[in-house]
Amino acid sequence: MSHSAPPGDGRGAGDDRYDNGRSGAGRFAPSPSGDLHLGNLRTAVVAWLFARSTGRRFLLRVEDLDRVRSGAEQSQLGDLAAIGLDWDGEVVHQSRRLRLYDAAVARLTRAGLTYECYCTRREIQEATSAPHAPAGAYPGTCRHLSADEREAKRAAGRPPAVRLRSGEPFYTIHDLLHGDFTGIVDDLVLRRNDGTPAYNLAVVVDDDAQGIDQVVRGDDLLTSAPRQAYLAALLGLSVPVYAHIPLALNADGKRLAKRDGAVTLADQAARGHTPADVLGTIAASLKLADPGEPVSLPLLLDRWNPKRFPHEPWIFRDDAAP
Ligand code: GLU
Questions:
Q1: CB-based contacts of 256: which residues, under 8 Å, 6+ apart?
Q2: Is ligand 1 within 6 A of the CB of residue 30?
Q3: Is the CB of residue 163 below 6 angstroms from any atom belonging to ligand 1?
Q4: Ligand 1 center to 3 CA (angstroms)
Q5: What are the alphabetically sorted keywords of the record (predicted)?
Q6: Candidates 73, 217, 239: which one to mutate for ligand 1, based on the most atoms within 8 Å of Cβ?
């Protein structure tokens, strides 16, 4: 992993990656699997600040290819609006764009860059826990099936996933916080065996189709970015500028979750905290305001300086926790 200097170090005012957004866009792309927690809201605020401060449009995309919980989208959009975020144009839904993803898989297939994979989750787990397997990478089991073996698998009736026939073990992306970051590119899934387009493919197709050239999101997705950028390059699509920001953690240093107390806007409201109070908490966590100071998004935009962005995770402590 190559962590280079934090923003500000060695990059002068001439670094136009911070302000080349005249016609581009940033975005927030939640999966509608439940309520947004304060860490998600904080990421949305940061993505909005990065986009608006560079003259970019800010787009919302609902990533509803799986993990959809009824009512979650409405509550997520309502919460984003309640803390003052605005966005441009219609909210885009991945579930309504299946043809685009199919077309991308078809293009890669015509170029000889895909293969059918019959592995079960269990088989992959067993193969990747072998002593010499690279961590987190598909070992390529089905890449080398002979025509006969493939026929036998087909005949057995298990529908295949479609994988990318990757030509690179690694790929390097540029991240505004992490510098140049090199990560594994394995034979990632493009279409799952239930026919659903895979997340990595959908993100790449959508970011390009929506004119998104700035991707700000949680750093749990940093290791996915090289795969996505490589896929974009193979498809002849543009690769965005990335900023993977530290996640919100609970008091034990684990990723913030529902059980960590008053973590949603609704939970906070039940404690008497308004959405504006929550925005204040987020602003203080970003060092853009003093604790308890009343803020608004325009004020935060005025104060925003990405070079002073805190690189440590935000530890959320529930003020009413025992
Ligand atoms: N939908 C993904 C999530 O909620 C985010 C995808 C992205 O930002 O690329 O974790």
A1: 37, 38, 39, 247, 248, 249, 250, 263, 316
A2: yes
A3: no
A4: 22
A5: Aminoacyl-tRNA synthetase, ATP-binding, Ligase, Metal-binding, Nucleotide-binding, Protein biosynthesis, Zinc
A6: 217
* Block mean pLDDT (10 aa), the chain, length 322: 35 40 87 96 98 97 95 98 97 97 98 95 80 74 92 92 94 96 95 97 97 97 97 96 95 91 94 96 96 96 92 85 54
Is residue 50 marked as binding?
no
30 labeled part of a ligand binding site:
yes
Q: Half-sphere exposure of 278 toward its Cβ, with a 13 Å CA cutoff?
A: 30
Task: Report whether residue 280 contacts ligand 1, using a CB cutoff of 6 Å.
Answer: no
- Same-fold call for 28-96+261-322 versus 97-245: yes
**Looking at the domain covering 28-96+261-322, what would its CATH class be?**
alpha beta
Residues 219/314, Cβ–Cβ less than 8 Å? no
Looking from the CA of residue 27, the nearest atom of ligand 1 is 8
Nearest to 202, CA basis, from 67, 92, 108, 98: 98
Which atom of ligand 1 is found nearest the CA of 63? Answer: 1
Domain range summary for the chain, segments of one domain joined by +: 28-96+261-322, 97-245
Whether 29 is in the pocket of ligand 1, judged by its Cβ within 6 Å, is yes
Residue that the structure tokens 């079960």 belong to? 120
Q: Name 285's Cβ contacts closer than 8 Å, sequence gap at least 6.
A: 42, 310, 314
CATH number for domain 97-245, candidates 3.40.50.460, 3.55.40.20, 1.10.10.10, 3.40.50.620 = 3.40.50.620
Predicted structure pTM score? 0.90
61: CA distance to ligand 1 center in Å?
9
| DSSP assigned state of 1 | -
